[in-house]
UniProtKB/TrEMBL annotation, chain A:
InterPro entries: SoxG, TrmE/GcvT-like
Protein name according to UniProt: Sarcosine oxidase subunit gamma
Organism: Primorskyibacter sedentarius
UniProt-listed Pfam families: SoxG
From TrEMBL, chain B:
Gene Ontology MF term list: sarcosine oxidase activity
Record Pfam families: SoxD (PF04267)
Organism the protein comes from: Primorskyibacter sedentarius
Matches recorded under InterPro entries: SoxD, SoxD_sf
Name listed for the protein in its UniProt record: Sarcosine oxidase subunit delta
Domain of life of the source: Bacteria
């Protein structure tokens, strides 16, 4: 059995914000009817966190549920537990229409840490990053420069970004360039 | 810069997060249709200076298709609405009438 490795093996860049590829992260993409109680309670049970609302990230440590679209969620869990979480979900939902796919090896995650996280994201995404417009717990699925991404804030100084694994090197360079010392805009503090 | 509100996820999405999908409310004609119907479906498009109805996809967001009513001359947006309809809903028509009394577009007014 080969040893799983993350896209950039925890590459790290220390700028005015610290950028780090987060390493292996379990991610299960789930689609179904979000208005069905049977579906949402099974998903919530499998993830171990409450259902997120519209454009929210429901997080508890390494576990979480991300609201991705009106019929799509992303389950977060420790990497080795993704298949188990998916199996649990499929067992509960055997009679309910849904789709679940372990995409852990097809995605990459990055963490941003520092006072300037809002500045870094605001440079790259067409998103209002003002503290009263984008708050911790909210999620935004958008683009960072030229690639699709989703991000959320764990706090005012910590953000997480996910993207396709195939664009992880681009994302690392992008975030690092935006976090280069001396390039802080200072629009959102930091 | 054109900004449209995605009716599915509520995001005020600016143009680079969206993908234009051409004219809205087309009736599709496929196999077994008459040549005239198929030709009209394939090639005949509105090209108004003013009120227009379009399809857009929130491609870099929730991924859903939706409809937008806007003015091609001023870029004013009258409203956006979900794709699960074959005609503009009444509230959208009312919003347009308030700004452009007497407007018409294909069979709608
Ligand atoms: Zn959307």
């Amino acid at each position: 059995m080969s040893e799983p490795v993350s896209a950039l093996r925890r590459a790290r860049y220390a700028g005015f914000v610290t950028v780090e590829e987060a390493g292996l992260q379990g991610m299960v993409q789930i689609r179904g009817d979000l208005s069905s109680d049977a579906f949402t309670s099974a998903v919530s049970d499998a993830a171990g966190v409450p259902m997120p609302g519209l454009r929210e990230a429901s997080l508890d440590g390494r576990n979480g549920l991300l609201w991705m679209s009106p019929d799509e969620l992303m389950l977060l869990c420790p990497y080795p537990e993704a298949d188990r979480a998916m199996a649990r979900l499929q067992a509960t939902l055997s009679d309910t229409h849904h789709l679940a796919l372990n995409v852990s090896d097809a995605r990459a995650m990055f963490t941003l840490q520092g006072n300037g996280v809002r500045d870094v994201l605001a440079k790259l995404a067409p998103v209002d990053m003002a503290p009263d417009a984008f708050r911790p717990g909210m999620l935004r699925r958008t683009r960072l420069a030229q690639v699709a991404a989703a991000f959320w804030l764990r706090s005012d100084t910590q953000a997480e970004v996910i993207c396709f694994r195939s664009v992880a090197p681009y994302m690392m360079e992008l975030l690092s360039t935006a976090a280069r010392p001396g390039s802080a805009v200072g629009l959102h503090g930091g | 810069m054109l900004t449209l509100k995605c009716p599915y996820c509520g995001v005020q999405a600016e143009e680079t997060e969206l993908h234009a999908g051409g004219e809205a409310h087309l009736t599709r004609f496929g196999p077994d249709s008459s040549d005239d119907d198929f030709e009209t479906y394939l090639f005949t498009r509105e090209n108004p200076k003013g009120v227009h109805f379009e399809r857009w996809r929130h491609s870099h967001g929730c991924g859903k298709w939706f409809h937008a009513a806007r003015c091609t001359m001023t870029l004013e947006v009258f409203g956006t609405y979900p794709a699960q309809t074959t005609e503009p809903p009444q509230d959208i028509r009312d919003a347009i009438t308030a700004k452009r009394p007497g407007w018409t577009w294909r069979e709608f007014s």
